[in-house]
Amino acid sequence: MKVWIMADSKTFYCGDLQPYAGRVGSQQDVGQGSRVVLYLSRSIANSGRNITTDNFFTSYTLAQELMQRRLSLVGTVRSNRKEIPPSMQADRSRPACSSLFGFSSDGVTLVSYVPKPKKAVILLSSQHRDAAVMDDDKKKPHIIEYYNQTKAGVDILDKLVRTYSCKRSTRRWTVALFFNIVDIAAVNALILWITKHPNWNQNKSHLRRLFLRDLGMQLVNRHVQQRVTSTVGKRRRLQDSARQSGFALSTATRESSADENGQKQTAKRKGRCVRCPRKVDRKVARCCSVCNVTVCEEHSTTVTRCVVCNGSTSTCS
Predict the structure, then answer these.
(1) 0.70 exceeded by the pTM?
(2) Residue 205, C-beta contacts closer than 8 angstroms, at least 6 positions apart
(3) Beta strands in 54-143 (DSSP E)
(4) In a 10 Å sphere around its CB, with 0-12 CB exposed, 13-18 middle and 19+ buried, how is residue 28 labelled?
(5) Mind listing the pLDDT tens digit for each residue in 84-135?
(6) Rounded to the nearest 5°, which phi and psi values hold at 255?
(7) Does 302 share its domain with 258?
(8) Which of 103, 126, 217, 294 is spaced 20 to 30 A from 20 at the CA atom?
(9) Co-location of 289 and 225 in the same domain
(10) How many angstroms separate the CA atoms of 141 and 135, rounded?
């Protein structure tokens, strides 16, 4: 199951998500990457924020659409995109640690960086408008440095969800999706709590485990109080009414009962007869009144005793 997620790059807060329903019939989902980004970014439209994506989503058309919503885009671009000029493709003639920039009239920047010979990394940005590079030996463009700092929001959120999860084995995809939403909601709740109370258990390394424990107790505490103070269930109501009437309500498992000759035998749950072969697999509730082993009717007398206590040595055929 796949879920599209928009997460904050600093706090890893999940802003929005959308389950991937797959192809509907024979209709192809053209422009899926752009459609997903535009759908998930509705809540942050006109906020001036930046959206970092990988090469599945990034395109020049998406950058133009986001700029109309006052949002910028930074992401890697696949080399087979039609907007990539041939000069920015991987070429053995281009030296290592070199960069080639391209600028459009509407404010979109394209950079092709060569980390090693015969390889090129292409990125698109509508936030950066210059050809600035880092002051080190690798001379990476600022676009790549910014991308590396903001690209791991969804990945870290997935790691946090897997660390403490309420998921259980199920074959129902709706239940699996619900478990995942609950895990993400718990992470978001912790982020909001830490943002509002930054000094809460700041010296402890297992903050999330403490938070989930307190959160779970608060969620079930009200229900526990209702169960304690109120009469729940038909059996409890019957017990209360019988107690008020002065009658004792018989239980499902009796401690002892009398047989035909007045001798007491211990009643217990059904078990396999100890005198029958295992392939017979005969399970009964009768037990011997002397040694208290489970025996069937064939291997017991009127006074429920096993054949050993009764002095017989007969066996099943």
Answers:
(1) no
(2) none
(3) 72-76, 98-103, 109-114, 121-125
(4) exposed
(5) 888 899 888 899 999 999 999 999 999 999 999 889 999 999 999 999 999 9
(6) -75, -40
(7) yes
(8) 126
(9) no
(10) 10
